[in-house]
From TrEMBL:
It is an enzyme of class 3 (hydrolase). This is glucan endo-1,3-beta-D-glucosidase. Gene3D superfamilies: Glycosidases. GO terms for molecular function: glucan endo-1,3-beta-D-glucosidase activity. SUPFAM superfamilies: (Trans)glycosidases. The lineage of its organism: Eukaryota, Fungi, Dikarya, Ascomycota, Pezizomycotina. It comes from Corynespora cassiicola Philippines.
Length: 306
């Protein structure tokens, strides 16, 4: 814990409060049928996030897993226009498996919107849990684990470097400072060198921890990540606790535990670390329900104060 606090202090000195972003991970489609979200869907979600009651900080940032409109090849996400209209900052995602199409989509969006969009982009995550999916254990797992399109660390770093060069060559006029580019992966595979940040998904629920032990589990993981990452900032690109769904060993999905995780873990990191919570409202019927908002009432499922 001492190592974590020292590194957090160093990173806090390097990052002023205005540069810390808090928000939600937002998917590109609804349900198992993968119905693409529209601009109206994104507008509603971004507005909802910015008007949550009793939250300790403003939830005015969104992490997108892809920069493409779902079920297209290179069409910009309709989330971009929604972000501009709501002044929502964006951690953009590139699917590693569709890397070239992601660049086409974002390039078209920058060409159309210019600095109105560029000023909202806080970084790019090249890939999402691709190194995990490249592990033999993951590839041999049951079919409900999407481990068919993994990438090696070397391939991810190559795509990161290509993204940096592409941004510098084609869009340097849009950014006063170099846009941070990194990768998101599970804690065991989240640390890369020669990146601007290391993005980590941290889930005591998937680790099978009781909610009473989740705070300790989370910060032990974060301590380890910060130690391994050194001077490269760690961004918490995904964490949360499900409101409903199957148990994960000792971890139980219910409203009480979702609120406990929000109070103990969330309230300890909001406004201190770049954090994108999973998630505002459930957008898939496949797996646990992680939403803090009830889809019918559009109200919080539990007290969001700290």
């Amino acid at each position: 814990m001492i190592v974590y606090l020292l590194i957090l202090l160093l990173q806090t000195v390097l990052l002023d409060a205005a540069s810390i972003h808090t928000g939600f991970c937002v998917g590109a489609f609804w349900g198992t049928a993968q119905t693409p979200k529209t601009k109206a869907d994104f507008l509603r979600q971004f507005t909802l996030a910015k008007n949550l009651p009793n939250v300790p900080v403003s939830f005015n940032s969104v992490r997108l897993f892809t920069s493409q409109q779902h079920n297209t090849k290179g069409t910009p996400s309709e989330a971009f226009e929604a972000a501009i209209e709501t002044n929502t900052t964006l951690l953009l995602g590139f699917w590693a498996s569709a890397f070239e199409y992601e660049k086409v989509a974002l390039g078209a969006a920058f060409a159309k919107h210019g600095k109105k969009l560029a000023d909202l982009v806080v970084g790019i995550s090249v890939g999402n849990e691709d190194i995990l999916r490249n592990q033999p254990d993951c590839k041999q797992a049951p079919d409900n684990k999407p481990c068919v399109e993994g990438q090696s660390p070397e391939n991810i770093k190559k795509m990161i470097r290509e993204t940096e060069i592409w941004l510098k060559q084609d869009f340097s006029d849009l950014f006063e400072e170099r846009l941070p580019v990194g990768h998101t992966d599970t804690a065991a595979f989240a640390i890369l060198d020669h990146v601007d940040y290391n993005g980590a998904t941290i889930y005591p629920y998937w680790h099978g921890d009781k909610v009473e032990d989740a705070n300790q589990s989370f910060f032990q993981t974060l301590d380890d990540l910060a130690s391994r990452s050194g001077e490269i900032p760690v961004w918490i690109t995904e964490t949360g606790w499900p409101y409903a769904g199957p148990n994960s060993m000792a971890a139980i999905a219910n409203s009480k535990n979702a609120q406990e995780y929000w109070k103990t873990v969330g309230c300890s990191i909001f406004g201190k670390y770049n954090t994108w919570w999973f998630q505002l409202e459930s957008d898939s019927t496949d797996g646990p329900d992680w939403g803090i908002i009830d889809a019918q009432t559009q109200k919080p499922r539990f007290d969001l104060s700290c």
